[in-house]
UniProtKB/TrEMBL annotation, chains A, B:
PROSITE patterns, A to Z: CNMP_BINDING_3 (PS50042)
Organism: Spirosoma fluviale
Pfam family, one: cNMP_binding
Cyclic nucleotide-binding domain segment(s): 4-115
Lineage, opening ranks: Bacteria, Pseudomonadati, Bacteroidota, Cytophagia, Cytophagales
Protein name: cAMP-binding domain of CRP or a regulatory subunit of cAMP-dependent protein kinases
GO molecular function: DNA-binding transcription factor activity; kinase activity
GO cellular component: cytosol
Amino acid sequence: MIDVLRNHITNRLGNDLDNLDKVLATFKHIKAKRNEQILRQGDPCKYVYFIAKGCLQVYVYDKDFNETTRDIVIEDNWCSELLSFSSGNPATENIRTVEPCELFAIDRPSFQTMMETSPQFDKVYKQILEASYANSVYRINAFVSLTALDRIKWLMEYRPMLLTRLSSKLIASYLGINKDVFSRLKAKL
Amino acid sequence: MIDVLRNHITNRLGNDLDNLDKVLATFKHIKAKRNEQILRQGDPCKYVYFIAKGCLQVYVYDKDFNETTRDIVIEDNWCSELLSFSSGNPATENIRTVEPCELFAIDRPSFQTMMETSPQFDKVYKQILEASYANSVYRINAFVSLTALDRIKWLMEYRPMLLTRLSSKLIASYLGINKDVFSRLKAKL
DNA sequence: CGTGAACGATGACAAAAGTCTATGTTTTAC
DNA sequence: GTAAAACATAGACTTTTGTCATCGTTCACG
């Protein structure tokens, strides 16, 4: 399973990383069942997670304690609460598994060492951050102006696998739509 | 006016940067009137702008050609379309001045040189990127679940100066609310 | 200055989204 | 395997948001 991570890195940084195995060894392998809490709002986020298998939900609670999902991240991607991870401040978001998962977690000291010993890995962090940012910008631009129906169409176009893979409730909270409304609108398509 | 930028940098990186003046000299000083287009969607974003004075609007058009504003950035902050700037791809967003502005612009080659000659400046990019990302995450978490009225309250709490400084039309487009609705809701507060 | 365009507020109405209840189905956990 | 819980859908109704037209006011620019 570590090969998923190995491939992810060599695809981006090339095969000529002589200390790659050493770096990979610093990752902690985590097997998690469905619905496990990976990070709780208020705790510092100690790890960056690479998802080798499964799917994570990044979410907060609104004033009525409903979940609103900022992001859904699937295998072969990185997931963390980066701002807490890099500052050490308490996390403002929660993370949980929505499927059985296999994760590889790297903590802050190892992450620092990795970036210092091989400057190429510095790129990894920049890539994670830029990808996360791009995702956010995309989401804001799409969502601030779209109606509920158009958000669903947006999801069908850009992340169609989510529609078949996840519960309606979760998708609705990702789209910022009430689940009953989501159910009605789906029927109209 | 360059001192605004000088202070911004020394506040973050300390006073002991011997090549600071050389770096500052690579910035281009731009004076812009109100309502000038700084970046057009489709063009590559060639600069990162430091706003010494004034205010910029980052926006896109929705399917009905209404503007939706992803961000409003005021003086003593950085503004760019970072993803285009760092990749060279066409920008997906527009930027314009909403007030008379004084900007300091740095292009990609100078930015690279700056980061290579003094690794401390590498931190600047990371800080810009992290701040931009933090801002986006904050905005998504706040906005996906909030009603129009609660978005206005959110703005009153976190960026109250915008309410007095900018037009209702602009604020409404930043909040993702129709301007007539914004006008009505304001009266209710 | 003066004037034409943009702006802000408001009322009437339409459309979209939210809420609540009920019901049947699927999943989970023991 | 079965009972309990969670899930998906649907109808009736309420609330919120959007749209359009109108009318003073303000502001930018010649």
